[in-house]
Amino acid sequence: MVQREQWGTRMGFILAAVGSAVGLGNIWRFPYMVADNGGGIFFLVYLFALLTAGIPIMILEFGIGHKYRGGAPLSFAKMNRKFEWLGWSQVIVCFFIAVYYVVVIAWALSYFYHSFSLGYAGDPAGFFFGNVLGLTDGPFELGGIQTQLLIPLAIAWAVNFFAIYTGVKGGIERLAKILIPTLFIMVVIIALRGSTLPGSAAGLNFMFDPDFSRLFDFKVWTAAYGQIFFDLSICFAIMITYSSYLPKRSDITSNAFTTCLTNCGFSLLAGIAVFSILGHMAFTQGVAVNDVAGAGVGLAFVTFPAAIATLGSVAPLFGMLFFLALALAGITSLISINEAAIAALMDKLALDRKVVTVIYTAVAASCSLLIATGAGLYILDIVDHFTNNFGIVFGGLIQVLLVGWFFKLKSLQDHINSVSDIKAGSWWVFSIKIITPLVAGYTGIMTLISDIKVPYENYPQEALLVMGWLVLAVIVVGGFLVSRLKWKDKEVLLIEGVR
Ligand code: PHE
Ligand code: NA
């Protein structure tokens, strides 16, 4: 048995965890979610979700990783052999997410490159759907691999590979220590410039203006709770894996608070950066902000490029800053997704990090080529919808149910409190056992019903079957099957936590 790797410093761990949490979701998903769901009201509900689900689950996962010292499958198996499958299901979710997430990073890198000449400014929609994506007419019409994406895709995979290959401290931690502070500075610069432009106030108003009538709107609550898991990288193996490398003396609760609040602060900053510049664009065109703000990928890759172009002589510089920030935010998250899977395989197969990293990366990178085809955006959209709304939400629901109700939660609470200054008390237990299961269960089931009634985005049924429901089946069945396989080195199951 070799000694498990460890983070070098507490700061290093926090930066890596923040690196995972802060990702594409903060920059292109969060701002629009706020604007679309009652502005300031959404933000309040989001804070409530953070307090009752986000932070409690982060504490739970940091505690599990720290106590049981394993990737998700090993940690769950040590808690109860019957829980192991959940760890593998979460790992499979990671794999599916990694395969499309990396392609979005490739788009961002490609936009970084095209910012030099503002190549996207003339016809932003045509540039994105045509030049970058080579979008076909439907999910089954692949249209071939888009060769213009190959270099950025290779760069994203290469950075990811070297970080993981060189290990927790020498690779992942070292990279996070450089990238995360850089990323913050870049986004602060964009937010400062943005909020001093004419028209920016209207943009910020559009985003934050509270619509009190929506406080009890069920859609707002679903959106807030739906955002929280993906946003914080919780409920899919990642934070358990990262905290399994914590040294013995580590304050679990304060690390969890720091990670969650930093992620939230970054989202606000990104929101200010994005919406102030959109406000400026609306101002120069003499239209309402409402008319220019679009959703999802369209916001980052169509609307925002157009807005960048209204910045005059500094446009190329700010284009580069924004898209590099997007790519860097994505890369550190991608690394965490893949590390969760790689660590799980290392535990199970008792194999060396280098061997697993090479094989895993070869497989995942090959699969990602499918998303780099002309049908990539459709496939990505469907896989993303199903993994996020069901894979993560139900995975999270089962996790809190198993750990909260079929396990001695108290033993974990004692462990956490024995190393932490801020104690996890009854608020924590209540959130894990009651609030999160109720809300996640309710929203998950509601989405399930609506998906059965109305096909998601009106995609053809066969596409939803193969790229959605089948993916879900692979996540569940695959989890069970892998958990039946033997642990190469049985010893790992016996080693009790750090204490
Ligand atoms: N938390 C990341 C974000 O907000 C996304 C992510 C998802 C990271 C899954 C890791 C794993 O974009
Ligand atoms: Na996030």
Automatic annotation (TrEMBL):
Keywords: Membrane, Symport, Transmembrane, Transmembrane helix, Transport. It is found in: Membrane. The keyword Transmembrane helix applies. GO terms for cellular component: membrane. It comes from the Bacteria. Coiled coil: none annotated. Its main location: membrane. GO terms for molecular function: symporter activity. InterPro entries: Na/ntran_symport, SNS_sf. Pfam families: SNF. It is a multi-pass membrane protein. The chain crosses the membrane at residues 12-29, 41-64, 85-109, 149-168, 180-204, 224-245, 257-283, 295-314, 358-380, 387-407, 427-450, 462-482. The keyword Oxidoreductase does not apply. PANTHER family: TRANSPORTER (PTHR42948). Belongs to the sodium:neurotransmitter symporter (SNF) (TC 2.A.22) family. NCBIfam families: Na_transp. This is Transporter. It comes from Desulfallas thermosapovorans DSM 6562.
